[in-house]
Amino acid sequence: MKNKILLLSLAAALSAVGGEKVITPNDFTGSDSERIAKAIAEGVRTKAFRMTIPAENRVRGENVWILDRTIEIPSDFSLLIKEARLVAAPGFEGPLVSNASAKGGKPDKNIELLGLGSRKGALVGAKAILAKNVNGFIFSNFEVCDAKAGAIEIADGVLTGRLSNVRFTTPVPKGIVVADGCRQIEVHEIVAPCDGVAAVPAAAGWASNLWATVSDGAADLPIPALMPAPRKLKKGRGYFGAPSAYVTRDWISFSRDAKLPAEGYRLSVRPTGVTVVAADANGELHAMTTLRQLAGEKMPYCNCDFYDGGDWGRPLRVPCCEIEDWPAYRWRGMLIDEGRHFFGKETVKHVLDQMAYHKYNVLHWHLTEDQGWRIALDRFPKLVEYGSVRPHSPVHFDYAGENNGEKYGPFYYTKDEIREIVAYAAARGITVVPEVEFPGHIRAALAGYPEYSCVGPTLPRVPRTTWGIEDDVLCVGNDEALRFVEQILDEVVPLFPGEFFHIGGDECPTKRWKECPKCIARAKELGLVGPEKLQGWVTKRFTEYLAKKGKRVLGWDEILECDIPTASGVMSWRGTAGGIKASRLGHDVVMCPQSHCYFNRMQGIADDPFTARNKSQCVSLEKVYRFDPVAGIPAEYRAHVLGSQACFWSEVIWNRYDLDWKMWPRACALAEVLWTSPEKRDFAEFKARMAAYRKTLIGRGVNCAPLD
Ligand code: ACM
Ligand code: ZN
Question: Residue 157: its pLDDT value, please?
Fold first, then answer.
């Protein structure tokens, strides 16, 4: 009976997992060392040639395996350590792992010892590894604790080998020793306090990325300029050295604390390691962003799920500090207008990278305008066929109608490209809120479908080619025109998973409605005083339509005149009065008055090559920094202020370089308004920090304007 159970469990242990036989000491009896030895013997017998020491020791119920003898790795054998800690029993010196029993004669073929990259996977004891008389070895991804000199010894008779991604947790003189007789030994990405790495003899091979953290206090790295400034920052002494950005996440211990404010985090950087305690997933992202800023390098984002141009192989040094941080507002946004000028996917990704780096979390993507329709939809191909191309555009800064004679477009996004952008943003903690404008600012759509305008098919089939406000709007007296918008929403809504959907609602002249028999009849039928009241009715209708699709509507402050449900959010752009009123009525509000948040306006710097039309409308760095999104709002309504956003209306923004120039450094000022507590904000301190930080931004490929 007993044998039968053993056989059954052996069969389970040897069963194919991912096409590979897995042997584990959890299926054997005896002391930890005995169980490991039995599992290896079984692995060799059945030609599995690989044993995993799992994180859980089922006898102990923890991830510790106590060793009273060396784990002998046979020839051609792999040992995988999954977050397990192999700990020397009292009185046992080690080595914990070795192939040294393979004696004389021909050397062993190859051996591998692979940790799975977690800091919790460790070899704990005076001597960790001894390799001897072997053709080749790979030892990588583990931590060595409580070690003494020669903790890792590559002895004579080793032909080739690679030792990489190893971290010593305590100062160890000559932690790695390589014998003179070795050949072709690669040692890289090692973190070792003090002079932990003994020189690899020149004859033995080569070493790269050897990295030594200096013991506490020996090197005191300054804290670089952080943007936005964290709420609480305490500088420590020394620094943490990560062997490479590639394994950054492996060297960090993560946990959650629900008592922290939303998106909050605590980040502790000490010579011995980095810990992140976060309120939620976004808090974790913000902690990683702060870590990237502290590292002062182009460090890949977060856990290397994606690559953003950082240098993975390079070691990092992070100055020691303790940070506690959380945002002041939950809406930290930017509006990018791609209707007037189209920037394209790569520029949008560049903007998203920079937004995430400064803890912005909402991209308000303005995709439909009088001058351009940028979303390709299945049901209405003429939206982009006619709406995404202008025969010409105004000359720069011209609002009077002089044209440049150049065709512009077709420029638009496919649904797949939109999904790609939405996913790219989400991976960076950014929600994309689309704006599909109606009943005004819809002229480009009417270029494809003029039958839905008040004047019908005689409407010229081109988008608006000048800037300014357009008289031709949606014919809201026409049921088919309303159905047209609903069917557009049917296709656009599923592309954007966020809570809000922006319907515009600003600047809708009523001139055409007052002349249109259908619109006049509609107003009469509804008992309205005149067609000018139709915007309220149609906005309510589409708000309800979107609510049925699970969306909360957002609109410009004109929609307040429409008696819309309080679940709808209001963006206050004509000053802050609309936002103040909306908050009193119970609406959530995004405060983006043009006076402080329209970054298309000039910034008032000397010799500005990318200036704006109206010289009296200056949004300076200082003005942005001093913006208070809740000014004028009684305390009891302040919770309705979600936050703010920088708006980039693109009549006079042509490309990425202009966009960057208008965005930075002002977006750093707004990032701080939206993140840091008001009592911590000091413009003089910010400006000095910004001056240093500007160099970092330029180094990251951002066309940042000067401060003055
Ligand atoms: C706007 O600037 N018309 C919202
Ligand atoms: Zn009409």
Answer: 78
